[in-house]
TrEMBL record:
<keyword id="KW-0966">Cell projection</keyword>
<dbReference type="InterPro" id="IPR009967">
    <property type="entry name" value="Flagellum_FlbT"/>
</dbReference>
<dbReference type="GO" id="GO:1902209">
    <property type="term" value="P:negative regulation of bacterial-type flagellum assembly"/>
</dbReference>
<keyword id="KW-0282">Flagellum</keyword>
<keyword id="KW-0678">Repressor</keyword>
<comment type="similarity">
    <text>Belongs to the FlbT family.</text>
</comment>
<comment type="function">
    <text>Has a post-transcriptional repressor function in flagellum biogenesis. Associates with the 5'-UTR of fljK mRNA and promotes its degradation.</text>
</comment>
<dbReference type="GO" id="GO:0044781">
    <property type="term" value="P:bacterial-type flagellum organization"/>
</dbReference>
<keyword id="KW-0694">RNA-binding</keyword>
<dbReference type="Pfam" id="PF07378">
    <property type="entry name" value="FlbT"/>
</dbReference>
<dbReference type="GO" id="GO:0048027">
    <property type="term" value="F:mRNA 5'-UTR binding"/>
</dbReference>
<keyword id="KW-0969">Cilium</keyword>
<protein>
    <recommendedName>
        <fullName>Probable flagellum biosynthesis repressor protein FlbT</fullName>
    </recommendedName>
</protein>
<keyword id="KW-1005">Bacterial flagellum biogenesis</keyword>
<dbReference type="GO" id="GO:0006402">
    <property type="term" value="P:mRNA catabolic process"/>
</dbReference>
């Protein structure tokens, strides 16, 4: 059995199996068995879920933070991701979403969040219109028309 060691700074929180814990001083935790957890630095607040991928992140996060409501969050995830695949034309984002879907379906939600975090800068570019390759539009050649002639 492998152990997972995590170091937390004073005042930092960690979400473990639905419980929120805060440490009062720098501490080290060792998880000796399988555990569902999320570090505070990876938690997205509802107000920050302002884009499609951030909303998907928030849904996956709910599966980790609230195990009692994980089935409901999973159902929401399953209803949400197909429309995201259809909405994005970026092959890199679509491939990333599919990676996230595969990870979540294998119950590797933390890794799914990590993969989704890597897509957020790309989504920001798309949302700002910078990551979109627009085809060059050539002006239409118009025939010269004589003015005033009848």
């Amino acid at each position: 059995m492998s152990t997972l060691r995590i170091t937390l700074r004073a005042g930092e929180r960690i979400f473990v199996n639905g419980a929120v814990m805060r440490v009062d001083r720098k501490t080290h935790l060792e998880f000796m068995n399988d555990v569902t957890f999320l570090l505070e630095s990876h938690v997205m607040q509802a107000d920050d879920a302002t884009t499609p991928l951030r909303q998907l992140y928030f849904v996956i996060q709910l599966m980790l933070i609230d195990p009692a409501g994980a089935a409901e969050a999973r159902a929401l995830f399953d209803r949400t991701y197909p429309s995201l695949l259809a909405a994005f034309s970026s092959a890199e984002i679509r491939s990333g979403i599919q990676d996230v879907v595969d990870l979540v379906h294998r119950e590797r939600n933390f890794e799914g969040l990590k993969r989704l975090r890597s897509l957020l800068p790309l989504e920001d570019l798309v949302m700002q219109g910078e990551g979109v390759v627009m085809p060059e539009i050539k002006p239409i050649a118009r025939p010269v028309v004589a003015m005033g002639a009848r």
